[in-house]
Amino acid sequence: MRVFLTGATGFIGSRVTRQLLQNGHQVLGLCRSDAGARWLTEAGAQVHRGTLEDPQSLAAGAAAADAVIHTAFDHDFSKFVENTQKDSRVIHAMGEALAGSDKPFIITSGTGMGSAGPGTVAVEDVANLDNPNPRVASEIAGAELRARKVSVAVVRLPQVHDTVKQGLISPLIELARAKGAFAYVGEGLGRWPAAHVEDVALLYRLALEQHAPGACWHAVAEEGVRMRDFAEVIARGLGIPATSVTRDEAAAHFGWLAMFAELDMPASSRLTRDRMGWTPTGPGLLADLGRADYGAVR
Questions:
Q1: DSSP string, 138-191
Q2: Which of 50, 105, 151, 269 is at a distance of 20 to 30 A from 184, taking alpha carbons?
Q3: What is the pLDDT of residue 79?
Q4: Model pTM above 0.70
Q5: Cα 43 to chain center, whole Å?
Q6: pLDDT tens, position by position, 36-77
Q7: Contact in structure between 126 and 103 (CB atoms under 8 Å)
Q8: Cα(260)–Cα(270) distance, rounded to whole angstroms?
Q9: Please, are residues 201 and 12 in contact by the beta-carbon 8 Å criterion?
């Protein structure tokens, strides 16, 4: 298939690009820079210029392809709400370009959307569109497009990691570096699901090749790693203490990250594994954090 891939040069998307090309697909990769265009060309992909700020540029890419995988997202989490709304606009624009066809459209969300309530394990066959996490805007957009017969499926992400990046844990590392301690809330029992980036890329390809309209897939290798456990590994790497803060202290310490630091958000991938034949093989989160270079600037 000729696949329009947003985020094609990004942390996850670059791996998806390679997965698709290595398995016989053509990639029309979204990029906005000359460096990104060079990378795509050298990888064997075609280049489509556009930006998330111009949804119609993405709609044009979607119209030119047999399928769409949408991994791009503005990861400035200090503007999280604004950026989820931008993602909704982009999803709608691409969906409009696909309306009236059965072309697969795979969008991205977070595993928390599969949780029926705080602390409950997120599962694939739950779509909690009342979730307070602003990322729910992406799934609401997908649901609205499905109602218009657009062939939408969702890949939900946990903390996606290698030794360089670890999702929301990466800004927590920089915060700890600035504060001189890696903090966790209370006893640090909040659980964060995780998966290695190469395993996540594989799931996107399987979601394309085994496309199931309306499905939600969980890219979860580890159901929940306790915050205290990864805090202690990171603190050792940074040479600083791991310390507890109270819930009352969390907002002042974590700033915009407080809404995540207090969460217990385990997630299952049992249905994804059973139905897709997806078997994660990459290193675990603690292993990657243990091998990270904490002297490097992230």
A1: HHHHHHHHHTTT--EEEEEE-EEE-SS-BTTHHHHHHHHHHHTSEEEETT---E
A2: 269
A3: 87
A4: yes
A5: 22
A6: 999 999 999 999 999 999 999 999 999 999 999 999 999 887
A7: no
A8: 24
A9: yes
